[in-house]
Design goal:
396 residues; alpha+beta; 6-stranded antiparallel β-sheet
């Protein structure tokens, strides 16, 4: 399935029908706003970018990338390319691996929608989470590089890097559940779904206690990472559309959802033989992040997984709506729309697993991260190992 993702997302094509714009107007704007720009300008469209259309701008001396809001009707608050430009500028100033931002435009008169122009970073993108093109002995280093970047991102103080007002601090889950619920319910054309409706009712009533705030990416997958052409080193993190100030463990759990994800939906490791592939287990990957961030363990981990499956389902529901309205930016969008009910079933099962694992005697949800015989409160087996088993959520 990685080959199919790569074919659908790699490289460029002629600008697709409905996504063209006034190229001469863009050239005039770049001459005024992008240092060193010199035409003539040739424009191609990247095959990926199902949310915000993405273009390759080629000149005799340099190539650039342009990201824009999609043309046509868009939902309120979606496709915030100005936020993408802002966070990449702030993180780049800290030496974090992002593409350099050259200029941003919020004047619809230039090409019809807001956009920004950034550096074209050359490297490797892996569309298959098993990293099949990497030697077996090298795969752990690539996973460690992803883990390191996530921990580093969550270690920034938002105020100190100029992102103190990039989002609302605190109450992240309630706000996110509310946001995606509203977007889901507002898109009448995409329709309703019983599994999704069950999650909408259950999630806000079962938010774990405690709160943290950091910069979060919101969509950290291996296919949103550019690696060095030959080394296990991250050169740039892409696609910051969903970034905000939020709970770092929610962001990390979205990333680790790759271990549960069927690879025909997005790059995932479900049913993969991790030992044969020499890929770290989910437990080991979580433990490595905990070491880097100074945590003993991650309580409430399974709730974070259920929340993220709901969130991803809501995103795919939005893609379904754009397909029906004719504004989807990617040829792959129809496949994403078809995957929506699969994701809602996965999310509901995760929710039901949380409910089913409540201990009647102790009123707790438990996650068994290793052999279930190691930890079972009902059977009287100890759960003192914070990595082997963690309390998930107080009973409502």
């Amino acid at each position: 399935m990685g080959d199919a993702f790569a074919e659908a997302n790699t490289g460029t094509t002629a600008v697709r029908e409905g996504y063209g714009f006034d190229e001469a107007s863009l050239g005039r704007w770049m001459a005024k706003n992008v240092e060193g720009f010199k035409g003539p300008l040739n424009i191609e469209q990247f095959r990926g970018g199902q949310s915000n259309p993405t273009y390759k701008l080629v000149t005799p001396g340099q190539s650039y990338v342009l990201r824009r809001k999609p043309p046509g009707e868009v939902l309120p608050g979606a496709h915030a390319v100005d936020r993408e430009a802002r966070i990449q500028t702030a993180l780049g100033a800290q030496g974090f691996p992002v593409a350099a931002i050259y200029a941003a435009c919020t004047d619809d008169a230039v090409i019809g929608t807001w956009f920004y122009v950034m550096e074209l970073v050359e490297g490797r993108i892996f569309w298959d989470a098993t990293f099949p093109d990497v030697d077996r002995e090298d795969r752990p280093a690539y996973f460690d590089a992803m883990n390191t970047v996530m921990a580093r991102l969550h270690g920034f103080n938002p105020e100190a890097i100029g992102l103190g007002n990039y989002g609302k601090p605190g109450n992240y889950f309630a706000r996110q559940i509310g946001r995606w619920t509203r977007q889901y319910q507002a898109d009448e054309l995409a329709g309703r779904n019983d599994d999704m409706d069950a999650l909408v009712a259950w999630l806000p009533e079962n938010i774990p206690p405690g709160d943290e705030t950091s910069v979060v990416h919101g969509d950290m997958r291996c296919d949103n990472i550019i690696f060095h052409p030959t080394e296990p080193r991250v050169l740039a993190i892409l696609d910051w559309e969903l970034s905000t100030l939020g709970h770092p463990l929610a962001d990390f759990a979205y990333h680790t959802m790759m271990y549960r994800m069927p690879p025909h939906i997005v790059p995932g490791l479900a049913d993969a033989d991790l030992a044969a592939l020499n890929i770290p287990s989910e437990q080991d990957y979580v433990a490595a992040y905990c070491r880097r961030t100074g945590r003993a363990s991650i309580a409430n981990y399974e709730f974070y997984i259920a929340f993220n499956l709901f969130r991803l389902a809501a995103i795919f529901h939005g893609i379904k709506g754009r397909v029906l309205r004719g504004t989807a930016a990617s040829a792959q969008a129809e496949e994403r729309a078809k995957a929506f009910p699969i994701l809602t079933r996965m999310a509901r099962k995760s929710m039901e697993d949380c409910i089913g694992s409540m201990s009647p005697s102790q009123g707790r949800y438990w996650r068994e991260m290793d052999d279930p015989t190691r930890c079972n409160p009902e059977a009287g087996r100890s759960c003192s190992d914070p990595v082997a088993a963690e309390r998930i959520l107080p009973a409502p």
